[in-house]
């Protein structure tokens, strides 16, 4: 049930992906290759107007997975999708500093690297785009995300929060089998459209 909801969220947050194709991908994935963009929905119109470029973001998808893995492993506090996107984008907010997320280290080729000293994302530059990529990872079952219902001890009111739980088993290996192309808007792309 929660899984369905995350698909709906993904449908709502895409900016340039044809909505008809999105539904086709979800309902009849085997027909997707013969299903063209409709050029009529709001996303198609936005894409045709702004002329973004279809760009492979696989390397940065792996980095998002690394961030999810590092932040959720042995974490005593809830990790939200915003936390993941903020750290991936190297934000330096009070909350980031308080949780020492800016000191996060990742294991790369049996070497420890500090994420905040690594080069910034060059494809998923905008937080909106990074968020779309994270939604995608959830929909493709590579990141486990849940909605938790909680009761405040003080007020007894209920509230719910979206929590990033962990990366799924063999997520990095399985990511290689998927397509990670995103429509990326850049000034260059706009110029080319005239
Ligand atoms: Zn469309």
Automatic annotation (TrEMBL):
This is ATP-dependent DNA helicase RecQ zinc-binding domain-containing protein. It comes from the Eukaryota.
